[in-house]
Amino acid sequence: MKKFVYKIATAAEWSDAIAKGNYEGSLDDKRDCFIHLSQQHQLSGTLEKHFKGKRDLVLIAFEAAALGSDLKWEQSRGGELFPHLYSALPVSVALWERPLPKNNDGVHCLDEEWFAC
């Protein structure tokens, strides 16, 4: 079974990455010296904790194996393992990207259909 990881970024950051061929990371990623990624079940918590109130976000999907040995699984929030990438993220291995709209309560929406096989 394939394992997938996801990056939440601003649309501007991702557009810039597409132009360059690599995503070098957000300010938080650069501060921490790795690119923060999430598994599907971690996305809602990541959005709430790190992206609340932000607009123009996109969600980008990657197959974990395509990221190679620079992808590490490390304990983070609540001791749970999170995927961290210790290199630039090549845009060529992105499977898809989706805008993250907000609902009437201002919460970012994740559509379960995005994750269907």
From TrEMBL:
Gene3D superfamilies: Protein of unknown function DUF952 (3.20.170.20). It comes from the Bacteria. It holds the Pfam family DUF952. InterPro entries: DUF952. This is Uncharacterized conserved protein, DUF952 family.
